[in-house]
Amino acid sequence: MTTMESLIGLVNRIQRACTVLGDYGGGDSSFSSLWEALPSVAVVGGQSSGKSSVLESIVGRDFLPRGSGIVTRRPLVLQLHKTDEGSQEYAEFLHLPRRKFTDFSVVRREIEEETDRITGKTKQISPIPIHLSIYSPNVVNLTLIDLPGLTKVAVEGQPENIVQEIETMVRTYVEKPNSIILAISPANQDIATSDAIKLAREVDPTGDRTFGVLTKLDLMDKGTNALDVLEGRSYRLQHPWVGIVNRSQADINKNINMIVARQKEREYFATSPDYAHLASKMGSEYLAKLLSKHLESVIRARIPSITSMINKTIDELESEMDHLGRPIAVDAGAQLYTILELCRAFDKIFKEHLDGGRPGGDRIYGVFDNQLPAAIRKLPFDRHLSLQNVRKIVSEADGYQPHLIAPEQGYRRLIDGSLKYFRGPAEASVDAVHFVLKELVRKSISETQELRRFPTLQAEIAAASGEALERFREESKKTVTRLVDMESSYLTVEFFRKLPQELERFGSPGERGGNSGERGGSTPAEKGRGGNPVERAGTLMPAASNLDRYSEGHFRRIGSNVSSYIGMIADTLKNTIPKAVVYCQVKEARTSLLNHFYAQLGKKEGKQLGQMLDEDPALMERRQQCAKRLELYKSARDEIDSVSWVR
Ligand SMILES: Nc1nc2c(ncn2[C@@H]2O[C@H](COP(=O)(O)OP(=O)(O)OP(=O)(O)O)[C@@H](O)[C@H]2O)c(=O)[nH]1
């Protein structure tokens, strides 16, 4: 069932929650304001227009600070809750949640002190409201916001710009479409000069949401009355004007009780020759009821739009939270879990790059298929196995006694010398794959959405992966170098054994001098058989040209044999180097890139883990605000849902 209490109480609760989060009418916020969506009654009037008197009269209690100059310097959100007849009256401040005030002079002092707490004694103003709830059988359910009185001049001790500041603050409250304006003007002053009406006219030209209140009717000159205003002829509003007679200064000085004052006010209208016909629609009690009823109906009308605004904001906040990432747990176990989850997310993407699905892994094959064979092709075997060099190396290996059958030592030296060249392309392959892997790590980190918010962890993963890749590179280099070295440690006997048979097929070495460059030429054994020491001295013998030819052919054949052998080794290494590289680097990176890092993680303490999950402070701040706001909006939604009339 709907009661006024449930509706106004609902808004009261949401308003209080808003204030706790710093969402209040005059505050500036990067979030859309829930407060602004809530209907409220803002009390505006010039200085000494009778604002405080009207509020106290509505409450039926003296509780507002008095004094000269600008007394109200922070908005006072006054929430009135009607309680059962006979129950004790008390007040409560939002900033002092568990304290019940039954002495209203203490409430006045607390308002003064709380005002000074924010504004200092400098008499400045602040838009941060003070929330005061009053529970009493003598009130109607109503929420009013008391604002600083509009003034034309700053008094001693107040900053020059305070006049403008007050106007700006009051304006931020009254210009909101959900604000109901209670415009207070004194009857003993020309209505055309009323500060409250001037402002209301500006922000609410149609007068839809303005309630005109005329105070000090009793202070009008004898023989004059305010009927032109009260009957809407001087200034027309959509709602009827309400005339008020508050306590005079003399009444206040005499401590005239508010209840007595209300009684006197009723009598004034009932017996006034000018206003008796309007008596039932005059006075502070009538005003309170009128406002309560109006506020309730406005809230009722606004609920659907407030609900949809709340739902929309919840959606926006949820998606912003998703974007920002959910908050990180504070305990070490959960932090470790989060870090491992993030590492896994990274590792998954890294593997996708290697295995396919994401680009980049194919560049490794590119190294084996293009770079390695091209580098091997460019090796200077031609130079190393040139006739001149073969002759030089073989002769040096023979020493003073030239070889008789085959230059075994010469062969070995020629082969060893050639094999050394393979180290270059082997190591270059290792390095090339290392750089591909490094680049894939970099890419994977930047593609891991979940890691975006953790720059520190990103750097840690990059460093750990870098170290691991470096270790794999070392290992890989050792392995490929070994592959090359192994080729020198034991030569393929088969290859050399095959050579004599071929020789027999093609005839004697002397006849085949010109074909020495061909594969399958004479064997070292054959050459040895046909050779003698003269071969090496060459020019000293009478048949010099023949011997020269023979000698040249012989060395050419040696060169050619070595070249064939090296060709065979090149084919082998083109296959085995990739195997070693994949085994030592690619497979290791795929299966144990972060193993070392995980082992280190296990040894870290809560604080260190927390540091790894450090985020951009601005982002953390924003998330905190978002989370709080989300909580506010969700609780507001629950509040609204719990009121049955919504259905
Ligand atoms: N006789 C009579 N005096 C009134 C009435 N309303 C207010 N006063 C007196 O006018 C003076 C100013 O009233 P306040 O209620 O303090 O006015 P205010 O607008 O709150 O003033 P500031 O807070 O100073 O801006 C007080 O001395 C009141 O007693 C009224 O209806 N009749």
UniProtKB/TrEMBL annotation:
Pfam families to which the protein is assigned, alphabetical: Dynamin_M, Dynamin_N, GED
Ranges for domain GED: 555-647
Any GO CC annotation of this UniProt entry: cytoplasm
Any one Gene Ontology molecular-function term assigned to this protein's record: GTP binding
Annotated InterPro entries: Dynamin, Dynamin_GTPase, Dynamin_GTPase_CS, Dynamin_N, Dynamin_stalk, G_DYNAMIN_dom, GED, GED_dom
Region annotation (Disordered) ranges: 506-537
The entry's keywords: Cytoplasm, Cytoskeleton, GTP-binding, Hydrolase, Microtubule, Motor protein, Nucleotide-binding
UniProt feature, compositional bias: Gly residues: 510-520
Compartments where located: Cytoplasm, Cytoskeleton
Catalytic function, reaction form: GTP + H2O = GDP + phosphate + H(+)
Record-annotated Dynamin-type G domain positions: 35-304
SMART domains assigned: DYNc, GED
Similarity comment text for this entry: Belongs to the TRAFAC class dynamin-like GTPase superfamily. Dynamin/Fzo/YdjA family.
PANTHER family in the cross-refs: DYNAMIN (PTHR11566), PHRAGMOPLASTIN DRP1E (PTHR11566:SF151)
Protein name: Dynamin-related protein 1E
